[in-house]
Amino acid sequence: MAGEQTVQVDGRRLRLSNLDKVLYPRTGTTKGEVIDYFSRIAPLMLPHLDRRPVTRKRWPEGVEQPDFFAKALEPGAPAWLPRMPIDHSSGSKDYPLVEEVASLVYLAQVASLELHVPQWRFTDTGERGSPDRLVLDLDPGPGVGLAECAEVARWVRSILSDMGMDLFPVTSGSKGIHLYAPLAGAQTSDQASAFARELARALEADHPDLVISQMTRSARTGKVFLDWSQNNGSKTTIAPYSLRGRDEPTVAAPRTWDELDDPDLRHLRFDEMLERADDVGDLLAALAPRRTAPLAPYLAKRSADRTPEPMPDAVPGAAAGVAGTAPAGKPRFVVQEHHARRLHYDLRLERDGVLVSWAVPRGIPETTDRNHLAVMTEPHPLEYLTFHGEIPAGEYGAGTMTIWDTGVYDLEKWREDEIIFTLRGTTGGTAHDARLVLIRTGGSGEKSQWLLHRMKTEAPRSASSASAGSARPAASARPPASAHPDAETGASTIAAGPVSPMLAVSSSRGAARATAERWGPWVEFKWDGVRAIAYWDGERMRLHARSGTDITARYPELTGEDADLGLGETPLVLDGEIVALDGAGRPSFPLLQNRMHLTKARDIARERDRTPADLFVFDMLRHGDRDVTTLPLRERRRLLESATAHAKPPLTVPPVTDDLDAALTVARELDLEGAVVKDPSSRYRPGVRSEEWLKVKLTRTQDVVVGAIRPGKGERRGGIGSLLLGIPDDDGALHYAGRVGSGFSDAELARLTAALEPLRSNENPFVGIPAADASDARWVRPELVGEVEFAEFTPGGILRHARWRGLRPDRTPGDVRREES
């Protein structure tokens, strides 16, 4: 393994680099070998990391160089890697949760050799749980070693065995031995720590010549320090099977008690751990019990003596023999019509010994042009495949349950955010041969939100399934004013006047990834700038903003006589983004604000030197006399690359990638907006917001219409304190969306004041503004569009934690629509 490569790990794409880099110089062990170890030991290691926050020691330059201790995940970590926050005095930090092989491979890629975890796990509700194990660290002082630690370990075992506690030894891979005992979860971390301390003191009293319980290093010579402190809820211990950052690649290796009796006991290296793993399995299996049985939530909501519903043991598979087996081994399904408080349908798919279940209010979609909401419920027992009857009033799910259809299903894909399957129903109804996709759009586990979409069986790519269920139609049936339908083909032809660019639909990462796999991956970066249609006549460039405004004079470095773009003599119409690059070469929207509002030649010339603009071109609409909008994107891209083969900055054609996760990781590192997934077979649709282009944002942004000013206080007294914002609905009514009072520079406040004063009005433009927000508002005509960054929408449609990004003179109020995540 050498160089750089992209690999698939259980459906995750990971870019691995510097695989031949030596991390352990004494043995010549490379990063590639470390990655191989973590991926192969994962089945034994992952249960001991499950739901525990992981802190890491990293050696990016190898173990002979200094390490550094990492708590929070680094900014470039994959977004799919789960994390949980823990509060510290310096603020909250997001700790990784390592739940799959891909997570281990990523951590190894960034040279996280040592993985440390506490003795507690997060609960299902995200809280810090009680400790589920006790740990004692036997740390040898100068003059003693593993043999003496083993002797102390046997004394500890004798005491705890008399108390009914099992003890499991681990040679730490560093110096000593760790001893683990499972706990029932009834004690707090403080209580477990106090117990361990008293145990250490008792052993010290019995064996003062060899055991010490005090942390004073100077007193440890010739003794084994019995460290009880790692039971503290804030402390961590090296995870079983983790590598150590020592001279050689040793590991924290679970051992048998017989092995501790060997006078030649030593630490094991990672290759030795792999050799024995298949033979001995996980010696610590008792310390890593399976998660709560999946039927526990189902059973907790029901009483066996009050409902006719099946009530099996809460063990997956316990019900399998009752409900029978599926023909040819195929998994089974049932759709039940449930007349509860509201009529809905329950879709249940057999998976891992239970029925994974969703409530679908409108049932199985009958056509491919509709998405139906689905909400995940708790897993049900397999006996529910045949259940029908009356659930009594007062009980959970009270009402009549009937079987609407049942049968088996063919599974194409099952991921945490996307499931593709074909139902083989037995009634001949809607579920018969229905090829469906479930796409998660929000939340996780029970009550998570999904879309259920019926796919075209003959062509497995459905753009509408990835749109996150936008309530608006994807496109107008009427072409924009600057495009004219061809009489024979119905395709649009590009006229000489301003063209409105094709627009993307917002999408979640999971939905976009799923759609990209059906389309064939085509991913572009989302550049943080101003959209522009560029008209090249063979000598000079003209630029028009998305709104149709001629902005040619604003960017003379692109449009002036001295602009040397290297485009040749063939006339072109191009689609792209005007950006301003910061010192690191990254597009910066705040920097571009210094250019996009200027209209006077003197101001433009002065600012041009301080803030030069570049044009990133990603599509072509016309080549010579030929309208190419009807060609597939892949063909337009070939023409674009050919026509711009000799292009020079400030005109650039950015690359296309085939990996959405990798693109978003890079985008996060470069502080870009996100990425756009495109259908490579899509034609260019001027002025249309099409589901053939899906934008995935890392930071949520929203175009808004400014409808009022609230006066400032303190340093802003007499000026703008905050702006009141709105988002138009389909009928043009401006619905109140909250206010924004942060993110304003002095220059931006001056621009806003100059732009808003002429728009002052006595009329409230909003629908639904609260009286408190309207009490001191200074209304303005709703003509200016701005952009805000925000955390989320409240259920009432109000922006939370909004921060101003700037005015958008390239957009009109009619362009503004709510962005769906």
TrEMBL record:
One Pfam short name: DNA_ligase_A_C
GO molecular-function term, one example from the UniProt record: DNA ligase (ATP) activity
ATP-dependent DNA ligase family profile domain residues: 606-729
Enzyme Commission (EC) number: 6.5.1.1
Keyword Aminoacyl-tRNA synthetase applies: no
Gene3D superfamilies to which the protein is assigned, alphabetical: 3.30.1490.70, DNA ligase/mRNA capping enzyme, DNA primase, PRIM domain, Nucleic acid-binding proteins
Cofactor dependency: Mn(2+)
Record field: compositional bias (Low complexity): 460-483
Keywords (A to Z) from UniProt: ATP-binding, DNA damage, DNA recombination, DNA repair, DNA-binding, DNA-directed DNA polymerase, Exonuclease, Hydrolase, Ligase, Manganese, Metal-binding, Multifunctional enzyme, Nuclease, Nucleotide-binding, Nucleotidyltransferase, Transferase
Keyword Zinc on entry: no
Reactions accelerated catalytically: ATP + (deoxyribonucleotide)n-3'-hydroxyl + 5'-phospho-(deoxyribonucleotide)m = (deoxyribonucleotide)n+m + AMP + diphosphate
Record region (Disordered): 456-495
InterPro entries per record: DNA_ligase_ATP-dep_C, DNA_ligase_ATP-dep_cent, DNA_ligase_ATP-dep_CS, LigD_ligase_dom, LigD_PE_domain, LigD_pol_dom, MtLigD_Pol-like, NA-bd_OB-fold
Major enzyme class: ligase
Record-stated family: In the N-terminal section; belongs to the LigD polymerase family. In the C-terminal section; belongs to the ATP-dependent DNA ligase family.
Entry-linked NCBIfam families: LigD_PE_dom, ligD_pol, NHEJ_ligase_lig, PRK09632.1
Xref: PANTHER family: BIFUNCTIONAL NON-HOMOLOGOUS END JOINING PROTEIN LIGD (PTHR42705:SF2)
Protein name: DNA ligase (ATP)
Organism this protein belongs to: Microbacterium paludicola
